[in-house]
Amino acid sequence: MEERISLIKGDITTMQVDAIVNAANSSLLGGGGVDGAIHKAAGPGLAEICRLLGGCETGEAKVTPGLHLPAKYIIHTVGPVWKGGDKGEAELLANCYRSSLNQAKQHDCKTVAIPNIGTGIYRFPKKLAAEIAIIETKKFLESNNLPLTVTFVCFSDENFNIYRDLLDS
Ligand code: ADP
Question: Could you tell me the CA-to-CA distances from 58 to 14, 27, 76, 167 in Å, in that order?
């Protein structure tokens, strides 16, 4: 299992993988954070394609081409806005990982990169988010042959250190 999960610190838009996951908002029309960076790097054609998708529910995932990105596909998932923890946030975030990995499998992706969904503008607590990300990804990889590998891409030192400690233990 260990060799199928890796961790790096960096910018997900530069990843040379079959698919990157985007922490989008429910309109899929672009926003700040990683979503803004992905739209900027993929080009204006991405917003045009996303407009045709008719939005996305929290916890679900929809796929577009990567356009100008090195990645072939972008899997857009919508994380929950953190509202204190008793609004089903943990289960909704788990759903984001399950739906995204399932989309990667359906699109025959061998390599996938995933950012720290929900931990920016949506304020999901970082350690809990990392625990959910790792548990759900391990579970999915245990019962599926694709994707072959998942790389968690952390933008901040704080998230990188949280993931490193959890993956080491
Ligand atoms: P959300 O609305 O789901 O919280 P954000 O984009 O605000 O989404 O934040 C999600 C995570 O993405 C944050 O941890 C943020 O630091 C990280 N992030 C921002 N830009 C990038 C990038 N270019 N590559 C990878 N991660 C990024």
Answer: 26, 10, 11, 26
- Ligand 1 atom nearest the C-alpha of 35 is 6
pLDDT the model gives residue 2: 66
Q: Which residues have C-beta within 8 Å of that of residue 101, sequence separation ≥ 6?
A: 112, 136, 137, 140, 141, 144, 147, 150
Residues 136 and 57 sit within 8 Å (Cβ to Cβ): no
Q: Report the alpha-carbon distance of residue 120 to residue 155 in Å, rounded.
A: 10
pLDDT mean for each 10 residues of the chain (169 residues): 90 98 97 97 98 98 98 98 98 98 98 98 98 98 98 98 96
Through-space distance between the first and last CA atoms of the chain, rounded to whole angstroms: 14
Report residues whose beta carbon is within 6 angstroms of any ligand 1 atom: 11-13, 23, 33-35, 37, 79, 115-122, 153, 155-156, 159
Atom of ligand 1 nearest to the CA of 123: 4
Ligand 1: centre distance to CA 33 (Å): 5
Is 35 an annotated catalytic residue?
yes
Q: Which of 120, 107, 112 has the alpha carbon at shortest distance from 136? A: 112
pTM of the model: 0.98
